[in-house]
UniProtKB/TrEMBL annotation:
Annotated GO CC locations: periplasmic space
Protein name (Swiss-Prot/TrEMBL): Serine protease HtrA
Family (UniProt): Belongs to the peptidase S1C family.
Keywords: Hydrolase, Protease, Serine protease
Gene that produces this protein: htrA_2
Amino acid sequence: MELSTSNGQPLQALSDQMAQIVGQIAQSVVAVHGRQRVASSGVIWRDGVVVTAAHTLRRDDGIDVTLPDGSTVAANFAGRDPGTDVAVLKLDGASLPAVATGDASALKPGHLVLAVARLDSLGASADFGVIGGVGGPWRTWRGGQLDAFVRLDGGLYPGFSGAPLADMRGTVVGLCTSALARGAGMVIPASTVTRVADELLAKGRVSRAYVGIGTQQVSLRDTWIDALKLSTDRGLLVVSLARGGPAEQAGVFVGDIVTALDGQPCRDVDDLHAALSTARVGQPLKLDLIRGGARSECTVVVAERPQQHGCR
């Protein structure tokens, strides 16, 4: 994307550049009417496909979208993934340009960014800020995997969830959301949005592996570590079981402590998440347990996680 500048006036040049970026991206930004009162924003990700923040859609039917020209059209719900907070809508008969996407993992704290929203038929809105923090792949509290951790320097205005976030080159590095961190705006990286959107368009949901246990990290007693010859000083206490879930069917009990998964130490919930890749669905997973002060083991057949479930 080529941008003009104002010779000899660097601040004016920056201002002009930002306005051009907003104007360019706004051609692909829509207002999504999927809840009461304030609309959310969405962006044309590819021809006829809108992506937005899943938490802003309170219904699956009767969703309307306001286009950049002010007209309103009906949208067909294609699917949502609460884990990554991505939802996909399909538009029939509305041809709008898709945004050019970039790499969120290339961002650094302090980089300038622009969020471009459309709340109603009055036109585009913009918010200017900086990247507050960047990290590697991150699992959300909802169980979804983001390709990078990208935090904004503050919260989001109402209606800016689902808005595209652009860097100073004018490429969209992801979607804004207020649902993944308390008090801070987060960015769903563009690569994550594309991956999730592809799966939602193909089958209407995102598959995740699941064994049906709720856990809490615990420290193991030194006497247990010595007597049971354990290779870890921490484990996961089973505090709940999904009724009829894989773990309950395999004979896991509330009060068991998981110390290893397929022979690898299980010290915290990240180790459990790492063992539950989508590829594990339908495959056996051996759990090493402490039960009643003695070592035990159990083999669980990993299932596909129900769409609305709090257990892993």
